[in-house]
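Reviewers of the previous submission asked for a worked example of the structure-prediction workflow described in the proposal, so we include one complete record here. The input consisted solely of the amino acid sequence. No template or homolog information was supplied to the procedure at any stage.
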Amino acid sequence: MGPKRIVLLVLLALLAVVFFGCKKKEAPKTGDGGMGEMAERVKEQAAETAEAAKETMVEAKDKFVNVCQDQMNAMKDKFSQMKAKADSEGADAQKQYNEMKAEFDKRMDAASSQMEKLKAASADAWTDTKDAMSKAMNELKAAYDKAAARFTGE
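From that input alone, the workflow returned the following structure tokens.
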């Protein structure tokens, strides 16, 4: 067999492979041109994304709750320490302290109430309760700051 015949046979074999072996495979007929499978994948990805977003919101909510709770506890502890200074300054200072303590306690009760609402809020609805909690915390801090300015010089 000569070199020309070998080249010719190789070319024929390649043509046969290309012609018979590389037929385009047809996608299964679903009536929607394969869109059903794609739509299903999109639904799955959307569900995964929604779940990830919900988990992130839960983490953010938990972090916010912890930060607020820590701040509330710290202010309460520091406020209690101011009593000794008020007691050492006499009756007028004690009266001022008691008035400021009453305001602080009122704000602490409001913040505690908002905290319970925040803890009970769903991941989807917590942003609304977060705003109310932030407002309550600002009011509590204002009451604390007023007393701290008077009794600790902060």
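The mean pLDDT is 82. We consider this example representative of the routine output the project will generate in years two and three.
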